[in-house]
Design goal:
Blueprint: E1 13-18, E2 22-27, E3 30-35, H1 47-51, E4 54-57, E5 60-63, E6 68-71, H2 72-76
Length: about 90
Amino acid sequence: MSSQALGKNTSVSEVTNISKHGIWLLAHGKEFFMSYEDFPWFKDMPVGQIINIEEPTPGHFYWPDLDVDLGVESIEHPERFPLKAK
């Protein structure tokens, strides 16, 4: 006899703090600071939209309410991924 997992897989990532300088993301036991200077999409957004985070694959984070996708590398090294406006 085999058993199947019930329910939806819950994320191991969460936004742990929001300040006037940026947000903190906790994922897999590591905390990341994301300043609004480097990640302006979060500035002035409602808390509910910022804390609604998904991790579709390990190390890939998605905020569906904001339509923002970020990988661990871009969070750890935002200088490697400069913002570009069209």
